[in-house]
Specification:
It holds the Pfam family DUF7054. By secondary structure, the chain is mainly beta. It contains one helix and six strands; from the N terminus they run ββαββββ. The strands form two sheets. It has a four-stranded mixed sheet with strand order 2-1-4-3, with helices on one face. It has a two-stranded antiparallel ribbon with strand order 5-6.
Amino acid sequence: MLIYKQKKNQGPKGNRLLISITVLGSAGPIRFVVNEEELVASVIDTALKSYAREGRLPVLGSDINDFLLYCPSARSDALSPWETIGSQEARNFMLCKKPRTGKMEDDGRSTQAITRKGSGNWKIKKGAKESKKWDPTMSKYIHF
């Protein structure tokens, strides 16, 4: 007759899941085991640490607030950081950086690229004296 001993290091109760997280722009997914009761924010943190430990590119950083976790098979919006990872009943996820909005520099200009309109537009400097410019479309001089 055999008596089975219960393992002492069983850890927290609940099911454990092998999840796969694909990082947008990276070569392949990161795989690790998590407890199904673990929060999405904790999973993002673990994924970022594993990604950095493996020396993967592109370099992402470590701030979990800069990232969103998606479940491509379930829905199109990002998972809430306060949801449990097991609530999705999925094993594959996508980690993306949050989109950045145009921030203002010290002088008040936007850091986003400023596009130039056409080459035929004239710019007048403030405080400039009246001058003449040739306008090829009207075949005459324009006074400013």
